[in-house]
Amino acid sequence: MNVGIVGSFVVGGIVLISLLNVQLGVQKTANQQTMNLSAKQQLEAVVDLVEYDFPKIGYLVGPTAIQQAQANQITFQSDLYDQDTVLTVTWRYDTTQPNTDTRNPNDFTLQRIISGQASTVNLNIVDFNLQYENSHGNTTVNPDSIRGIHVSIVCQSPEMINDRFYEAAWEKTFYPVNLRLALQ
Question: Where are the domains of the chain?
Answer without folding.
Answer: 10-183
